[in-house]
């Protein structure tokens, strides 16, 4: 009887411990956390989508939106059906909510200690790569803990789409804080070498086995964001979205070089001389850092550069609310000419 009781308490303790290590959902409104509903939503997007199909061959990295699915679903959709890898390294944003709660950390990456992450089809595994990074990356480049990841939504937004197409994914969630370009060069160099070693040790290839995903929403425009250099009407909306598309086409829908990524920082990073016209992309740091890291990896493993391709750009004002009915999903923000958000999906291929 004592043995049975001891066994019972051991099982109970293990269950409680495992439950405590699963990262809870942060945004239960904007994203889909029910597998059956996610299946139905993807079927809806398939019928809605008239967009050009893009190749999956040699696709190794991508930029994804993280806005509400009922706004951005058609922009997510062209990307995720192309991702075949089971291991996903995700570079996430450190939003203002996190910065305020964490004393505005800078010049570091943030990694968590959760044993699993929540997903609509069950808990999502963590790649062994995360622990390798923790043990090998210089401590001054890292914050390790669950608080920041628990209150950040930019990485969790990607999981339902990833898990819909592959139930066995393993993720390495990495939040990127603000840092200058030289700091990014140094940290991305060290991080990329750790990932290169991991991939070599496990005979993994970029794209096929390990995929690099960057979370971003483009311009946050309007009075609510204190960002309206073109005005607050339809003409301003047209000018601001055109500027977003210009930036994507000039710096991301092309061959990726460190020189161009540094030039991109002048377009999307805050600077005193351009503060009235800089678009407020929340993924401005993950984009540059993630592409620096991925470029170093594919250059070392494949001897080539990345070439970007824009899949789809849109925004909350243009898209409106998708007519997907009988859903538990909702909206986390309003939309008008005084408050709208741009977003895009883009893929990065091995240069041939």
Describe the structure.
- By secondary structure, the protein is α/β, with parallel strands linked by helices.
- It has a single domain (2-350), classed as Protocatechuate 4,5-dioxygenase, Chain B, CATH 3.40.830.10.
- It contains twelve helices and 13 strands.
CATH architectural designation:
3-Layer(aba) Sandwich
Instruction: Supply the CATH superfamily name.
Output: LigB-like
Q: What's the number of helices?
A: 12
Low-pLDDT segments: 4-19
Number of DSSP-assigned strands? 13
Indicate the CATH topology.
Answer: Protocatechuate 4,5-dioxygenase, Chain B
Helix content: 40-55%
Question: How would you summarize what this structure contains?
Answer:
By secondary structure, this protein is of the alpha/beta class. It has twelve helices and 13 strands. The chain starts with a helix and ends with a strand.
């Amino acid at each position: 009887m004592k043995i049975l009781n001891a066994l019972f308490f051991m099982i109970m303790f293990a269950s409680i411990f495992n439950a405590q290590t699963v990262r809870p959902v942060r945004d239960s409104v904007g994203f889909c956390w029910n597998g059956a509903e996610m299946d139905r939503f993807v079927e809806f997007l398939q019928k809605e989508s008239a967009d050009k199909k893009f190749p999956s061959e040699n696709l190794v990295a991508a930029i994804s939106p993280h806005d509400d699915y009922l706004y951005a679903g058609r922009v997510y959709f062209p990307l995720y059906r192309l991702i075949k890898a089971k291991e996903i390294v995700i570079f996430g944003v450190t939003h203002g909510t996190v910065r305020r709660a964490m004393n505005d950390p800078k010049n570091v990456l943030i990694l968590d200690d959760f044993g699993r992450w929540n997903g609509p089809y069950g808990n999502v595994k963590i790649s062994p790569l995360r622990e390798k990074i923790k043990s090998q990356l210089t401590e001054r480049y890292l914050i390790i803990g669950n608080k920041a990841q628990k209150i950040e939504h930019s990485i969790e937004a990607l999981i339902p789409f990833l898990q819909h197409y592959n139930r066995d994914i393993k993720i390495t969630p990495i939040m990127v804080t603000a840092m200058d370009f030289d700091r990014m060069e140094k940290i991305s160099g060290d991080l990329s070498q750790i990932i290169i070693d991991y991939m070599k040790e496990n005979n993994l290839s970029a794209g096929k086995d390990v995929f690099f995903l960057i979370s971003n929403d483009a311009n946050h425009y309007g009075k609510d964001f204190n960002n309206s250099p073109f005005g607050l009407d339809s003409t301003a909306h047209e000018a601001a979205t055109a500027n977003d598309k210009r930036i994507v086409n000039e710096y991301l829908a092309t061959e990726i070089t460190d020189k161009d990524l540094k030039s991109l920082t002048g377009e999307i990073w805050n600077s005193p001389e351009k503060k009235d016209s800089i678009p407020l992309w929340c993924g401005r740091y993950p984009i540059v850092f993630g592409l620096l890291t991925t470029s170093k990896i594919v250059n070392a493993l494949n001897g080539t550069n990345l070439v970007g391709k824009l899949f789809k750009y849109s925004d909350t004002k243009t898209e409106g609310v998708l007519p997907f009915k009988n859903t538990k999903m909702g909206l986390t923000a309003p939309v008008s000419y005084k408050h709208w958000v741009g977003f895009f999906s883009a893929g990065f291929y091995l240069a041939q």
